[in-house]
Amino acid sequence: MSIAKRFTNARFAALLAVVGPGLLAGLSDDDPAGITTYSVLGADHGYQLLWVLLLSTVALVVFHGLAARMGVVTGQGLIGLVRQRYGVRVGGAVLAALVVANIGTTCAEFAGIAAGFGIFGISRYISVPVAAVIVSLLVLRGSFHRVERLLLLLSTVFLAYIASGFMAHPDWGAALQGTLVPTMPMTGEAIAIVTATLGTTLAPWGLSFMQSYAVDKKLRTEDLPLERIDVITGAVLTGVIGFFVVVACAATLHRDGLHIADAADAAVALEPLAGRAASTLFAIGLIGASFLAASILPLSTAYSVCEYAGLEAAIDDPYREARTFYMTYGIITLVGAVIVLAPNAPLVTILVGTQVLNAVLLIPLLIAMVGLGRDRELMGSFASSRRGTLMYAVTTAAVIVCVVTLGATSVLG
Amino acid sequence: MTAGEWGMLIPVLLLSGVIGREVLGDDGRSTGRLADLIVRVDGNGTPTSVERLVIARRGQAALLLPWEEVAEVRDGQLVLAASDLTGFEIASVSDALRDGEILLARDVLDTQVVDVVGHRLARVADVLLNPVDAAGLEVLGVDVGFRGVLRRLGLGAVFTPAEDVVAWADLHLTSERGHMVQLSAERAAVHRVDPSALAAVLSRVNTDDAAEILAVKDPAAAAAAVEQTHPDVAERALRAMPEAKAARIVAAMSLERARRWRDRLRRRPFGGRRFLRSSVWRRPHLNWRLP
């Protein structure tokens, strides 16, 4: 083997040892809520709004990269840093909002599991409890790397969307044009779906997960260049999967003028248009996406609670040393599953309220991250440069505009 | 420390109770709000006492005063001996800090610390101060319990001797400045403790900090600590150091141990990182010993 090749192999292996945080944090953003948004985007507007996914991918790269850098340099998660820098009151308020939003989002993931299995005729009273038990056992029993391997393996179900996109026989020329040439109809509905796509790609729980997980993985500053590749890969894959979901819906539902309300609708509606296989793959993708996000949400919440309480814990800690961590994980999973199964729970209100809370919470979190990232006392020589800070500020401003516009369009109807 | 021992030290003043309060001049008028207190980690006197204070003023430059300017501490409120404070203005607190000095609110409060004696990582809920007499404010230790957080949120009871407190001398600070200052301070915890306590610190700070701690110890002391640390943690730290320094530490071990460590460090599968091997990342358990 030549020296150059051996070097390349060593680099590649080192990269494999570092990947994980960016991939998992990115892909879990393609959760049922994300897939629903993409499906509606494709079904209602065809290929025209695909360029939005490029923008959301850039936002993911920018902020997940910052979260990873902050975690690696400070050795602390986001909520821990917020408490250190802004005190117990601000930290406590952010944590409280985050926990409520995360419980709501966990409900959304379990609702996705229920809807996905529902397509195959499996009752939610079986699928949801079984999923909750599997998700809990995964983290309670597994070591860090076993958990990471299983989650990465689970992420491969997203390939189902890519296959489903191909089976829909899309017009690739139109898809490419829609991706690269930004145009949009100036209707309230189009503005709402564009801002929803941009404003919900970045999620508070995704950001806090990204940072805590990079800490738990014990990445070091010398891993940062490789971690950057991980973040970019995760964000690009997230965008690519979104692309194929939109394409699948655009080539079928949009062509026939069908409207859908959520991702499960899309899977069912695909069957007569693109064949049973495409529909089944779409449903499997939905279930896998829900599972992945349903594992990551309680994990993200458990990290955040422990960071705030000063009882930092890791997946590798045994139960007796990390009770708060595992109790938080268990309670969030349980509450999420119970709400989805409760016969009279106002599920739609909870899901809409959660989206609003996530969007509102995102603004202070992004501003805090920009402030923390440029703080030399925390970040030393890894603090954001003036240009970097400008880039973060511009991205934050874009997200804020989206969130505010989304709020305005939904209030004004 | 037990509740009884702390009982001897009460009454204490809590940092969260003094930060942000108005500082009065000798004429009774406010000069600004107390922004931070400065202590020297390796000062001349033991115990550690507050040496300087930072006063923030609305729309004006901050003030940095020596503690001697404080006439008295009245129920947690500082009263200065003068009211003319020209000459104490500073442009930046960070630039005004001398070697060995840290800020209690910025570098200690709400940061992570390693309790060297209790072998754990914790977050500081409050700093305990003891006004010994009019001229001094002594730093006793830090409260790391969650009750301290609740108290600051206004949800908990007052301070009692039963709080979860770590003595100042038993701490290793992990904040950027705290860690660096303690590394260069002779009397800081990392330089006084036995190898097993040092091993506990190495296991709880991040890899780069652990490597820095090992690098400033003399090779024999570092080798003793490495032998008491979980091999995976020690391996990460040794790999993060310049090779020559790591080699000196290994050379200070017994022949057999040194040979095993050289073998271990020579194996660099996958560029020094083992892909998907949980053993590299497993967290150490408290009473771990080499087999």
Name the features.
heterodimer, A: 413 residues, mainly alpha, Amino acid/polyamine transporter I, globular, B: 291 residues, alpha+beta, SH3 type barrels, Annexin V, domain 1, 6-stranded antiparallel β-sheet, 4-stranded antiparallel β-sheet, disordered C terminus
Describe the structure in your own words.
The complex is a heterodimer of chains A (413) and B (291). By secondary structure, chain A is an all-alpha fold. Chain A has a single domain (21-412), classed as Amino acid/polyamine transporter I (Up-down Bundle). Helices cover 80% and strands 0% of the residues of chain A. Chain A has 18 helices and no strands. Chain A has helices at 3-18, 21-27, 32-45, 51-74, 78-119, 124-141, 144-155, 159-167, 172-180, 188-201, 204-216, 224-254, 263-274, 276-309, 323-341, 347-373, 376-379, 386-412. In chain B, strands 2, 3, 4, 5, 8 and 9 form a six-stranded antiparallel beta sheet that branches. A four-stranded antiparallel beta sheet of chain B has the order 1-12-13-14. Helix content of chain B is 35%, strand content 26%. Mean pLDDT of chain B is 80; it is low at 269-291. Among the domains of chain B are: 13-105, SH3 type barrels (Roll), CATH 2.30.30; 194-291, Annexin V, domain 1. In chain B, helix 8 runs antiparallel to helix 9, helix 9 (207-216) crosses helix 11 (231-239) and helix 10 (219-228) packs across helix 12 (243-251). The chains are: A mainly alpha (413), B alpha+beta (291). The A-B interface holds A 10-11, 13-14, 16-18, 75-76, 80, 83-85, 87-89, 91-92, 143-146, 148-149, 217-218, 220-222, 308-312, 314, 316-317, 376-378, 380 and B 94, 106-107, 110-112, 121-125, 144, 146, 149, 152-153, 174-177, 205-209, 236, 240, 269-278, 281-283.
